[in-house]
Amino acid sequence: MAGHVDAHNDNWSIGGIADGVSRIGIVLGVLGLAAAGFLGFAQEGNTEHFYSAWLVNFCFFLSITLGGLFFVLAQHLTGATWSVVVRRLAEVVASNAWLMLLLFVPIVLGMKTLFPWANPEVVSGDHILEGKASFLNQNFFLIRSGIYFLVWILASQYFLRRSTGQDETGDIGTTLSMEKTAAPITLLFAVTVTFASFDYLMSLEPHWFSTIFGVYYFAGSFLCFVAFLSATVLFLQGRGRMKAAVTPEHYYDLGKWMFAFTVFWAYIGFSQYFLIWYANIPEETGWYYVRQNNGWTTLSWIMLIGHFIIPFLGLLPRPIKKNPVTLGFWAVYIMIMHWLDVFWIAIPNAYPNGIPFHPLYIACFLGMGGLYVAFVALGLKNRSLVPARDPRLPESLAFENA
Amino acid sequence: MRQNQQVQLELGRTPLVEGGHDFHAVTEIVSSVVERRKWPMAWWVAFLASFGTLGILGLMIGWLFWQGVGVWGVNNPVGWGYAIINFVFWVGIGHAGTLISAILFLLRQKWRTSINRFAEAMTIFAVICALVFPGIHVGRPWLAWWLFPLPYPQAMWPNFRSPLLWDVFAVGTYFTVSLLFWYVGLIPDLATIRDRATTKFRRLIYGFFALGWRGSHRHWHRYEVAYLILAGLATPLVLSVHSVVSFDFATSQLPGWHTTIFPPYFVAGAVFSGFGMVLTLMVPCRALFGMQDLVTMRHLENMCRILLVTGMMVGYAYSIEFFIAWYGGNEYEKFAFINRAFGPYAWAYWTMVSCNVLSPQIFWFRWARRNLWVMFIISIFVNIGMWFERFVIVVTSLSRDFLPSAWAYYKPTMIDTLTFVGSFGLFFTAFLLFIRFLPMVAIAEVKAVMPEAHASHGHDPDDGGNAPVGGPALQPAGGGRQ
Questions:
Q1: How many domains are contained in chain A?
Q2: Nearest CA in chain A to B236
Q3: 3-state SS string over A279-329?
Q4: pLDDT tens-digit series, residues A158-203
Q5: Which of A132, A176, A275 minimises the CB distance to B258?
Q6: Most exposed of A52, A121, B353, B375 (fewest Cβ within 10 Å)?
């Protein structure tokens, strides 16, 4: 492969695609959010659906963002070579953290609707919830969220700016300093992601608890991010960008990450389910009980078969990971499964009587997704799609699996 | 090219083999250890000490069989004492070997080649030490075969729903695959020793185990396919073995044992303790046998980094457990954790935290990662801390559970302690024999990561055809600071 890389004639500028994509994205975003607002508030009784749908999609896009941040951190921590050609995309995706902060606003507004613990009348008299009130209360929730977003925004901006700056200077010192900073930031990342998952998802059923929950959300997030990254790369290549930079050898690694995290996600999900099932203590099994009744059973099976067994078998063969068409298929498939996973975590406790099929979920998805993709495209505008002067780039371009 | 080398150095990628050795020199360095006629005094001293300690293990087990488990400190409610602690400890030690040989191989971490043989051997001996304890823990060796689900006329079966039985399968599979992996990796090097043998006896023995290896392209090709398949098989085992071990505790309803993070937390702890043991053994061994050019500062620094990372993963688990014990609102759970940190076993708990979480923090500093004494001492701390982790988990939760009237303080007897000490005798005896008779560095694999292995370099005629040049090199492209 090395001989074929012709970096000089490769197009590393997103150019017109950014305008096209961002225009479509913003239009779709505004229309989607307007539709969501209309569906949610113009008719009576849909407010709950609105906030639930918003939360699912917020947590979905947040997971892509955080997965992107971890991807950047992990590459710097390990001094990885293969990934340099796709790292800029990850940096831009991670820097959507500020957009997630804006999208967080409706969750603050809907706190009382979403989180039982935010209602004093629910908490009072409930021994367990009273015990947690010093943690699960509105003010502390907001303070914590403020800290999370501060960490995520500062960290993602730091890496994006340093890395883009290196495009100008080509300074090796930039790489070294990013590697140094990545270590402490990873610690902050671990703490913030864990507690964010406790806050936004686990506390939806405030009686329930699971020590592995943060790892579960992380596993799904990274998986979904790699799928998103693969899809982005393939989309850009389809438009004639970075065609020489990213080769089937890189697809292969992206595919391997998807495979590995499909398995890791299953391992974490199994650990959680299995230990709770085996010990059979009512205070823990309640969470799964809801998911095994009233139509939620189907979705639980989809998690096992669709989120694990099918992609496990599908991603196993080497040629599938090296072929852009099949890799793209699995990337989209995994994103759909991860969305269902977030839905499966976030919704059953509020709707124990059955899966709420509501157009609001689609409206919120299109609205948020439109904005999300638009800002990824805008973030890539005026930037090289590949860290052009990263000292590891030549090796990454010539990268071969062995 | 010179400029490229400069960039590599600035990125911290020093060569994996230092000292400007060629292929032949690498063969010499490693093989000469095995071929030495006269062994260094230090080896004999260590061997006799280990063998003596192994004798203690034999005596203790003999006494246990003669008297029964009454000679141990186990009581009611602490029915699980040193035996399970030591079992989990030793199984954990083994994990670094499998991580290095399988996962780092799949992740193309070239630096693993200098340490994988060593760590894999350690894995096998550690698992043997671990297996001693389930075998003897009822003090009735004539019933040890009850561990296995064997059909026999009385139709007494072990409980298939018990994680203790799953352990038998998990550890058994792990041992088998690790052994195969280690042996397959050894074959080309055994052939090298065979080809260099000066006596007929050596040639016969090494030749027998080299399975007729001739270093042909076809041999290399099949070797590498087998190696990759075994790496793929061993990778889930790294996770599954200690996950199943954690089920021994986590499937119960006992506060402090039943928590969902146990499987990945045990795996991280196992890798942590395994790397601690690799460093403990590697630092003196490389000095004693002159391996400094093969196991360089860069290798040691990477291992220190892994200690730092896995140490903090363990710290993460400790903290989240503590937080959820409060958040969950279960008063028994809350008590179990407060009791751990401030109860009668607080000394053990804080030993664990200091050794596992605090002591590796020194590896944030580059000088510490490059100082042999610092890393040796910290690695000992890690071994101590990880043993205490299992002690804390097993003993604190059992000694004070739901009924205060049933509480009791567990105190190990001298027999307990000497049995544990004796298991080190078994481990070190096996290990010292390994470095005496088998190449402790994977010669062929190390050659594959040297610059000479690239196509632009020539073939070294002195080498019995055992350098994987021309054939598909074992791990050409690779990433990482490593």
A1: 1
A2: A263
A3: HCCHHHHHHHHHHCCCCHHHHHHHHHHHHHHHHHHHHCCHHHHHCHHHHHH
A4: 999 999 999 999 889 999 999 999 999 999 999 999 999 999 999 9
A5: A275
A6: A121
Contact criterion met (CB below 8 Å) for A397 and A85: yes
Residues 6+ apart with CB under 8 A from A81: A392, A395, A396, A399, B478, B479, B480
Place of tokens 């599954």: B240
Distance (Å) of CA B265 to CA B262, B326, B390: 5, 19, 12
pLDDT in tens, B419-438: 999 999 999 999 999 998 99
A245 occurs within a structural domain: yes
Which residues in chain B have their CB less than 8 angstroms from residue A198's CB? 327
Q: Is residue A342 part of a domain?
A: yes
List all residues of chain B from 380 to 439 with a beta carbon under 8 Å from chain A.
none
Cα–Cα distance measured from residue B207 to residue B200, given in angstroms and rounded to the nearest whole number: 10
Range of the domain at A41: 2-397
| Least confident stretch, A360-364, B4-8, B74-78, B117-121 | B4-8
With tokens 């967080």, the residue in question is A104
Q: What is the CATH number of domain B39-443?
A: 1.20.1630.10
User: How much of chain B exceeds pLDDT 70, in percent?
Assistant: 93
Any domain includes A402: no
B145 in contact with chain A, both atoms CB, cutoff 8 A = no
Q: Does residue A106 fall inside a structural domain?
A: yes
Minimum CA–CA partner of A278 in chain B: B251
Using pLDDT thresholds of 50, 70 and 90, give the confidence band for residue B457. Answer: low
